[in-house]
Amino acid sequence: MVVVGILGILAALAVPAFLTYIRRAKTSEATQNLGSMFKFAASYMAQEYADRSLSATTGTYCSVGSDPLSPTTPKPFKQKFSAGENLRSLGFSIGDEVYFGYGIVGTQRCGWTAADAVYTFFAHGDLDGDNVQSTFELAAGTDAARTLRHASGIYIDKETE
Predict the structure, then answer these.
(1) CA–CA gap between residue 35 and residue 123 (Å, rounded)
(2) Are 60 and 67 in contact (CB under 8 A)?
C-alpha cells in the first residue's frame, strides 16, 4: 500500500510537468515558422531590390502588406493554415496542420530609402484550450544599408497557454 501511495504522489507530480513539457515543445513550431517568415521576407526584399537596379544607391526594393491570423481561432489541436495574399507573395506557406495561427503586419510599398520598421510577424496559440492565447512576435526592419534585419529575439507572452 505504501508503494501504491508513493506511485500516486509521483504521478500527481509528473503528469502536470509532462503536460507543460509537451506544450512547451509545441511552441517550437511558432518560433521556427516566424524565423521562416523572416527569411522569406528578406529574400523577397533582396530579389525585388536586385531586379530593379545594380546600384545600391539608386535601387528600390519592396515589401508586402498585412495578412490576418490564419487559422483565425487557434485551438489546442492542429488546424489547417491558409496563407493570405501577402504571405503567398513572400513565398511562405505551411503544408502541415499547425497549433498556432500566423499573420503579418506590414506596409506594402516600394522605394525604401532609409532605416525603417517594415514587418511584425506574429503567431497566436491556445495550447491548453482555456481561451487564453500565447503570443509570439518577431519584428523586422531595414538598417542603414537597406538590408532586412530582425529583432534580437522573439517577443513571447504567455508561452504555454
Answers:
(1) 11
(2) no
* Rounded Cα distance, 151 and 140, in Å: 6
- Residue 142 neighbours by CB under 8 Å, 6+ apart: 45, 112, 114, 115, 116, 118, 148, 149
Where does the pLDDT of residue 43 fall: very low under 50, low under 70, confident under 90, or very high at 90 and above? confident
120 contacts 140 by C-beta, under 8 angstroms: yes
Rounded Cα distance between 52 and 146, Å, is 14
| Residue 70 φ then ψ, to 5° | -145, 125
Say which residue the cell 495550447 belongs to: 127
Question: For 73-114, how does the pLDDT look when each residue is reduced to its tens digit (9 = 90+)?
Answer: 998 899 999 999 999 999 999 999 999 999 999 887 776 666
